[in-house]
Amino acid sequence: MKETKRWIIVAGGVTGLAVLLLTWLGNPVNMGFCIACFERDIAGALGLHSATVVQYLRPEILGLILGAFVLAVVRGEFRPKAGSSLATRFVLGMIVMQGALVFLGCPLRMLLRLGGGDLNALTALAGFVAGIAVGLFVLKHGFTLKRAYPVSKGEGAVLPAIAAVLLVLGFAMPTIFKVSESGLGAMQAPAVAAFAIALVVGALAQRARLCTLGGIRDFMLFRSTDLLYGMIGILAITVVGNLALGSFKLGFELQTVAHSSHLWNFLGMALVGWASVLLGGCPLRQLVLAGEGNGDSAVTVFGMVMGAAFVHNFGLAGSADSLSDAGEVVVGGISSGSQMMVIGSFVVLGLISWYHAKQPKQVKVEGKK
């Protein structure tokens, strides 16, 4: 077995175990690790949105960034670069977050929900694959965000430094941040344990190049299964763990923090898949790349955080299935405004894809282009 594949399997398995442990320690069910959900909580903790049930400075996100940063420095892979269509990447980051909050989870949580028996994640997986297929079609027809250029180490360390400052403030002056008194934001693993676990996951994700998008993309392009082993590892461990803990619930309706509006689950994750291909990595991968000094990914992360603020300030996130007073299942989903947002986001993705398609190279004639 190749060393790379071995590290991918280890990273996937450890991530699955981390999810189970964080859930057992207090994080929401099937949400032990969710990049989109936790960045949304951080946006709330910073006062960027006013949804009081999803506000908490999640140490898991900070640990992922810093774990990737530390290992990149140790292994000599901290090579800062930036400058690749930053404004476009910010918008794409917002679109990724919008799609994720329509589905109620990022690609990582999609695997965790599937590992807990939530069959709505199958619809989302189909949408994710479809979005990736569209993104690859766009790439094959010349899409590019142009190259990034080397920058100073100080420039590359901006997001890790912000993560470190937030971590220190979170422990030393926790009252300056908003914290949910109920709801998902109030479901928390102990902060020190959560940070330590995320630090390990971040380091392993950096070492293995773990990426939920990459596994499907590489298989579709090259029939390479290497990165798929990471996804399979996460899924297998969570299935076994949930069965052992008695928390495996097979079905569509009334899953934890999920809705069974299949069309919007599909379209939400299709947005995530398409935009992630254009960005070159899933939300988890963007955090790891930012930890390695990639300023473009740092801008993408900022875009995702602002996307979460936008969605919650305007009430555009998905709503979970619920029970009526008569005991009947009320299917959740998204509002008409959110449906318009999804359609609009597809239009924006189409325009970005068209605009950034590679143009024929200009030829110099008599010293001029």
Key features of this structure:
mainly alpha; disordered C terminus; 15 helices; 2% strand
Short characterization:
By secondary structure, the chain is mostly helical.
Can you walk through the features of this model?
The structure is a single chain. The protein has helices at 3-25, 35-45, 59-74, 86-103, 107-115, 120-140, 153-156, 158-172, 191-208, 212-222, 228-245, 262-279, 283-291, 295-313, 336-355, and strands at 81-82, 149-150, 322-323, 329-330. The protein is mainly alpha-helical and 369 residues long. The chain has one domain (3-355). Strands 1-2 form a two-stranded antiparallel ribbon. A two-stranded antiparallel ribbon has the order 3-4. A hairpin with a 5-residue loop joins strand 3 (322-323) and strand 4. Helix 4 (86-103) packs antiparallel against helix 15 and helix 12 (262-279) runs parallel beside helix 15 (336-355). The longest helix is centred in the first third of the chain and has 23 residues, at 3-25. The chain is globular, with a radius of gyration of 20 Å.
What percentage of amino acids are in beta strands?
Answer: under 5%
Principal-axes geometry comes out as globular
**Number of helical segments?**
15
Following the backbone from N to C, one meets helices and strands in this order, namely: HHHEHHHEHHHHHHHHEEH
Helix content: 55-70%
- The whole-angstrom Rg is 20 Å
State mean pLDDT (0 to 100 scale): 94
Total number of domains = 1
Number of E strands: 4
Distance between the termini: 51 Å
Sequence stretches where pLDDT stays below 50 over 5 or more residues = 362-369
Overall SS class = mainly alpha
Largest pleated sheet: 2 strands, antiparallel
Order of adjacent strands in the largest pleated sheet: 1-2
